[in-house]
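Hey, why these numbers?
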Amino acid sequence: MAYQHNSIDDLMLSGARVQQEAASGWIARLGVRVKGDLAIGSGLLQPYGRVNVYRSNTGDDIATFIGPTGTTAISSGSDYSAGETAVGMTLTLTPEVSFYGEAGYLWNIGGDARVKSSMEASLGIKVRW
């Protein structure tokens, strides 16, 4: 679980001031990760798979436009639910050097705010000294 709070300064446009009130709230993640260990000729291979569900309960974001002739407030919900799945592996060559890679997908489940679906990937090397 994580608590999210944003504080945004007012913005001055020509003829208007904009106040932004970002909602604060909790983000929760529930997930499972399954990992294996395989000894191969070059080191230890650790494949894994994971599945996560995210839920945000942050309320509404409000933008208020204040001008010389009036004020207008625009509200938008920011609650969401999203799913994520990923597969990856780590190849440990020595206690000091390992390579890793992961590919995953994030998608919208529901809520007031829409989470944009996306493919995610990472590759890297980890060196300890």
